[in-house]
């Protein structure tokens, strides 16, 4: 287990180093320094405020998803939510979700399977929002072809995914059981692990009581992700790049891919590369794009890490403890 963790750590560092190299090839350090010096402080302040609002909204969304499992105080949910994202920033292998499940059990006596199930629901809706930003924003910006076709495709995709979520919430157990039987013929060990993960997800989905809950989570996800788009708009304006809202949505969609790619803690390198690549398609200078990317990344990383560490220490815990329990309690 320790070897696997070390392997994941070094793999992430190598991948980040490759992307940092690819980014540095595209910029002029002197121009970047000039762009950073000219950054508009007012817009950066608005960026920071938008980041705070976004984390509050996403924590409230998670609290709503948790509601059928257990109703917890907003303050406790927010603290656990932020500490989980802080763990992603400083610990390898994106352990934040496991850390959140552990902390939720400590704070609200919620079982690990139920906690992981609600986090899985979050991720499903976040992926849906990511696709909407990527396809809808790209179509509206002219990057992905016809605007009309892009809009209709985006609407159809959203409806299909919402129907799939509803089906899984009603008949997920049957699908998991049958899938596990088929997979066990190939590999019993893999089947056991896959069924465990899938069942955690289904447990979370079944906690949502029908179409109304799905609609509320979908709507709150739209609001939360719209806030992230606004955050990008402010950050880009700080570097004299006033892109329209839907163009910023496309940039966010591509930037989200940088979070998915395995990398070092905090997604160093991959996030900057994806932001610069998206902005290049919108004819934005690479130096201004890089200045925007590292500034937004630094503000986001610094805000969550500082808040998360403060909450962690006030709870009497340490990063070492989070690293230990995320391995001993959750890994297979």
Describe this structure in words.
This protein has 332 residues and is mainly alpha-helical. The chain has one domain (2-112, 207-328). 81% of the residues lie in helices and 0% in strands. It is built from 13 helices and no strands.
Outline of the structure:
This protein is an all-alpha fold.
Biggest pleated sheet: none
Report the structural category.
Answer: mainly alpha
Shape: globular
Q: In total, how many domains does the architecture comprise?
A: 1
Question: How confident overall, as mean pLDDT?
Answer: 84
How is the topology of this model organized?
Elements: H1 2-24, H2 29-37, H3 41-66, H4 74-90, H5 96-108, H6 112-140, H7 147-184, H8 188-207, H9 211-237, H10 245-260, H11 270-281, H12 286-314, H13 319-328
Helix pairs in contact: 1-11, 2-12, 3-4, 3-6, 3-9, 3-12, 4-5, 4-12, 5-6, 6-7, 6-8, 6-10, 7-8, 9-10, 10-11, 11-12
Please tag this protein with its features.
332 residues; mainly alpha; 81% helix; 0% strand; globular
């Amino acid at each position: 287990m320790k070897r696997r963790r070390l392997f994941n750590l070094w793999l992430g560092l190598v991948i980040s180093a490759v992307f940092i190299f690819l980014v540095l090839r595209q910029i002029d350090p002197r121009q970047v320094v000039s762009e950073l010096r000219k950054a508009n402080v007012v817009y950066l302040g608005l960026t920071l405020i938008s980041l705070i609002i976004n984390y509050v909204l996403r924590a409230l969304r998670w609290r709503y998803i948790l509601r059928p499992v257990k109703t917890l105080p907003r303050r406790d949910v927010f603290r656990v939510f932020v500490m989980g994202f802080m763990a992603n920033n400083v610990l390898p292998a994106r352990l934040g979700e496991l850390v959140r499940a552990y902390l939720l059990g400590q704070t609200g006596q919620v079982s690990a399977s139920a906690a992981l199930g609600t986090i899985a629901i979050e991720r499903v809706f976040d992926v849906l929002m990511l696709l909407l930003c990527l396809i809808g924003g790209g179509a509206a910006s002219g990057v992905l072809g016809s605007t009309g076709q892009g809009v209709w495709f985006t609407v159809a995709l959203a409806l299909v995914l919402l129907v799939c979520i509803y089906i899984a919430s009603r008949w997920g157990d049957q699908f998991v059981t049958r899938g596990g039987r088929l997979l066990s013929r190939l590999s019993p060990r893999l089947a056991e692990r896959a069924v465990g993960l899938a069942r955690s997800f289904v447990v979370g989905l079944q906690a949502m009581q029908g179409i109304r809950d799905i609609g509320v989570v979908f709507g709150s996800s739209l609001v939360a992700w719209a806030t992230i788009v606004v955050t990008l708009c402010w950050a880009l304006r700080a570097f004299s790049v006033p892109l329209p809202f839907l163009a910023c949505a496309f940039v966010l969609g591509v930037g989200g891919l940088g979070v998915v790619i395995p990398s070092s803690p905090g997604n160093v390198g991959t996030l900057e590369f994806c932001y610069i690549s998206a902005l290049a398609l919108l004819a934005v200078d690479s130096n201004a794009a890089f200045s925007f990317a590292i500034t937004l990344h630094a503000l986001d990383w610094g805000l969550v890490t500082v808040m998360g560490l403060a909450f962690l220490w006030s709870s009497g815990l340490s990063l070492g403890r989070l690293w230990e329990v995320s391995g001993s309690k959750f890994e297979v």
